[in-house]
Write a structure and sequence with these properties.
This protein has eight helices and ten strands. With 257 residues, it is of the alpha/beta class. Strands 6-5-4-7-8-10-9 form a seven-stranded mixed beta sheet, sandwiched between helices. The chain is globular, with a radius of gyration of 18 Å.
Amino acid sequence: MEKCKWCGGIFHCYKSPGLKPDWVRKRCKSCCYISYKTPPTPDQLDEIYLQAWQKDRGVGGFATGSTNTLISHSLIQSTGLNCKGLRCLDYGAGSGALSRVLISLGADVLCYEPYGPAPSDLASFWIQNQRELNAVEPFDLVFFVEVIEHAIEPVAVCRDINQLLKHGGKLIVTTPNSLGLTARLSGQSWRETENATHIGLFSNQALVQCLRQSGFVNLTRLKRPVRYSNSRIKSFFLSILQICGIDGGLRVIAEKK
């Protein structure tokens, strides 16, 4: 019987995404990591991504990402880091919202997005080729925002990112929380599992193990509230969930040895 690669737990069957009903999901009974019984191939995912980028272009959606200027500012603030003068990589830059905020804060920014075209204002900061990325100078910070859940081999991707960092450089990861309150209440109807490109949905335990296996140390879960809405009422209640660690997202800072 297959066991969870993060905790050794046992899996049980989980609802497939509506877009791909033949892609069967599974969920670890112990750490609550959600993945596929048989991961889709890169070609299968490429087809979905390319179609989604064409559909989302200029509109925003799961391909381009939902991280906007408000969220980007708040996320950076939550890390407690001063990005001015630091060399930063926005890995999986989407529409470039986070990159624009980093640039406005005085960071030296490079955007990596293998699928989407470069926005005109970020063309000089934008690369799409992994080989080109591997050849650049190392970074002080890598922002890995809502990307790890899309990786077929998350440890391999995180190890690659580790190699892109300077000694003591930091990785900031955000991803949906499979043990958040919404996930718990929604059960197998949790909206994050409906996105077929979400290959692995992590609990904090699973994410920590993934990052440790990738060579990162000094892992810290961020619980300082990040603002996702202009509504004061929504932000207030979300901040309580974030402080308690049961909101819909995980935010972790990890350091390269």
